[in-house]
Amino acid sequence: MPLTTEEVLAVELGLDEADRIRLRTEMEMTMPDERSRAVVQTRDFLVNLSRDSSLPEKVRSDAIFLLRHFPSRNDVILAGRIEEQSETLPLGAMGPVFSSTFKEFAPTSAGQK
Fold first, then answer.
1. Cα(first)–Cα(last) distance of the chain, in Å?
2. Which portions of the chain are predicted below pLDDT 70?
3. Around 25, how many Cα atoms within 13 Å sit in the side-chain half-sphere?
């Protein structure tokens, strides 16, 4: 029987039982729409870093490198649709990873509420 994503992460990170429980709780608490939004926002953040001329060249080039391998907004939405429409997809214990719909979120600066 193949290992779950949680088990693979636990082995790779060398987690003890208490850390495994925390990881399981965190993974269970993140809903597909939350994960989708976070991935899309992370891509936007990397794009902003890559274009910010006030940052060191190394930071901008690292952001560009990561963007080459990062899913686009459309990739995330498509992955969500595939997972939502396929009842027979073997998703394992983790369930769907992405959602085709998610609320936009604009973080506020530290001083704002």
1. 48
2. 1, 27-29, 87-96, 105-113
3. 6
Contact 5, 72 (CB under 8 A): no
Cβ burial of 58 (10 Å; 0-12, 13-18, 19+) is exposed
pTM confidence score:
0.58
Residue type, 30: T
d(CA 100, CA 84): 8
CA 41 to chain centre: 9
Closest C-alpha to 53, from 63, 39, 41, 43:
63
> Counting Cβ atoms within 10 Å, is residue 21 exposed (0-12), middle (13-18) or buried (19+)?
exposed
pLDDT in tens, 53-76: 999 999 999 999 999 989 999 999
| pLDDT for position 113 | 41
